Amino acid sequence: MKYVTEYRDAALVRGVVDEIARVTTRPWVIMEICGGQTHAIVRYGLDQILPPSIELVHGPGCPVCVTPLELIDKALAIASQPDVIFCSYGDMLRVPGSGRDLFSVKASGGQVRVVYSPLDAVEIARQNPDKQVVFFAIGFETTAPANVMSVLAARSMGLKNFSILVSHVRVPPAMHAILGSPSNRVQGFLLAGHVCAVMGYHEYPSLAEKYRVPMAVTGFEPLDLAQGILYTVRMLEEGRLTAVENAYARTVTFEGNQPAQKTIAQVFEDCDRTWRGIGVIPMSGWRLRPEFADFDAEQRFDVGYIQTKESPLCIAGQILVGMKKPHDCSAFGKECTPEHPLGATMVSSEGACAAYYKYK
Question: What is the pTM for the complete model shown?
Answer without folding.
Answer: 0.90
